[in-house]
Amino acid sequence: MTYFLRKCITMLVTLVIVSVLAFVAFQIIPGDPAVFLLGLEATPENVEALREQMGLNRPAPVLYFEWLRQFVSGDMGKSYLSGMTVQETLGDRLWITGVLMLLSFIFTVILAVPIGVLSAQRKTGPIGLAVTATSQVGMAIPPLFLGIILTYIFSTIFRFFTPTTFPSIQENPTAFLSFLILPALAISLPRSAMAIRVIRASVFAEMSKHYVRSAYSRGRRTGEVLFHHVLLNVAVPAITFLLLTLTMMVTDVIVVERVFSIPGAGRLLIRSIETRDYPVVQTLVVVVAILVVGLNFLTDILCRAVDPRITR
Asked: What is the mean pLDDT of residues 97-104?
């Protein structure tokens, strides 16, 4: 079995397992969508009638395979809360969250790669010590707290933006992207601090190896040694960690969207869990699983392309 085929099968099996676990979890946790819609004062007869109307009184395996069949065919069901299809409920929310994650990842790469490489070359100097101290502080600050600080500074003090006024990308793309810069920084700065430490340690470990000293003895310049030898060997752990960081940003986005009042998929997920809107929650969980599994698959493919010796 080829490497690519093995990874595809693993990805599909993982997605099926995640969908089953998500479905079972929402069957186990307390709360009934019918009770939420009718209120706590509703009679058991009215609740049971609504459950039958919504199809919730059928056996759990029947509900799961019906949902899976609809999901595979592109029909994600209807929201219990709004009555609209899940696709309509999601609307532009996935797009907003995707842009926020992409901006956060771009900022992370821009900050982590050059700073990590530069500080590895000057590990014992002032630059290296400053990077160590700064990255340590950055790792200790969670995105939630950093988002609150940035909101207070740039909204309350300088009044650069109003958190509750989110611009539409259709009406003003520039304002849309400008609004997402601070949330993206709140996500990327702590992740950049972690990535800097990993890249720095990897580069420093490679710089101390025999083949690097041999390259220097042959008259190679630092730039040549760094770009033609060291960074190529550091690429696999760097790619792995950076793409892993992108998957970890999924949880950061959920928190930061609430701090900055961004109408993205993260806020919708929290609201749907609170209201027991299971079709929306299940769809979002599976979409997140597809994103995470897809990124892991991309990581494996990129690492294999960089280093063909990887076979598993």
From this structure: 92
